[in-house]
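Table 4 source record.
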Amino acid sequence: MSVVDMTAVPVPAAPRDVAESGLNVDLLTQLVLKTLHLAGTLTGLELAARLGLRFPVLEPSLDDLKWQHHVEVVAGAAIGGAGYKYRITDAGRERAALFLAHNRYVGVAPVPLDQYRRYLERFSRSVVNDVSPERVREAFRTLVLSDSVLDQLGPAIRAGRSLFVYGPPGNGKTVISQCIRNLLCGEIAVPHALVVEGAIIRFYDPVNHEALPESPAEEDAGPLDRDYIPDARWVRCRRPSITAGGELTLDSLDLSFDSVSGFYRAPLQALANGGVLVIDDFGRQHCSARDLLNRWIVPLESRVDYLTLQTGQKFELPFVVLVVFATNLKPAELVDEAFLRRIQYKVFAESPTHADFIQIFGNYCAQQSLEFDRALAERLLVEYFRPRMIPLRGCHPAALIDQALARAEYWGRPRALTMDLLLAACESYFVDDRELLAEYA
């Protein structure tokens, strides 16, 4: 089998027989029978397409099922077994019902755990985060960030290590974390499912994985092209970026078993393999920050995660994830020094300066196709922010402009910024506690 450039075509080559698939005949037999039970009659090629395998991988299972009279051939074709039409018998339906009662997984055949491990090892060696100061500035060009912040982000992303982004609320920590994905090179292959000790774990998730269109190499590869045919058990994806906020629980980081379907779903950190996992609002989860970091200690240091099946069987899963912890709480109040040491890179998302605020204001005006009046932004700072000693935040310009435009539309006025609209937006946006202070004085 020829060697394929992992950076050009990240999907492994399709197995040519049962041995190369890494699957046992019993599992293939179950998948074949359950698929025919639900689909009725299929040709060998149609069955192979549904399971994401070449027909020769399935042929031994079909031969065995025919011999047991669980499957019968109802029509033939000159091309042989791949063109035959296969139909399940009544005895086969009874057996398929037993399989479905135990495990309802039907679809693309799973990838064995050891093949997934080998793939991620090759992937992590072949894909380098080519991060330079120029690329960092390009990736974050929509944000107004100081050079010191950008120069802290760059080395952390290039190293692919954990990152702690902290600072006052409203300064773009979440956006910073999500922009990191723009610096990740290449793509990754994600298996539809994994099989571990006979248990099936559904892996590819269209909500969290962005599938890519077929490459020309894949489109041109025909059934007689023996140089490279992609393994259809894998999906070419953009490197993932997954965000979990206050809803995150410790259970989200473990395998989720569905007793009705009989198979598992992969945890968040496994879905993020090869990409970025952002823990937003860190410290505001239902579980304590200490418990959450205790769960991360081993993966962050060893790059290996340990998961447990319902049977109690533990197994290792590669942990090739750049974890970003974003919080507006003080790090010293969340965790102790030992925990912070394990998060090697820390970035302080500082508040904007006066000049930064004006630039952010102008940028958002451009996004909204508004005329930018610098004097108007300056007046806002001088007449409203400064007398009330309101600290500047990166989120303020967009929020106030949006409110001002909403008020203009409500009053039937032109879509333009004026001082009275911005002041009205400020009165609605900020909490004025002067009356409360006077009441309690």
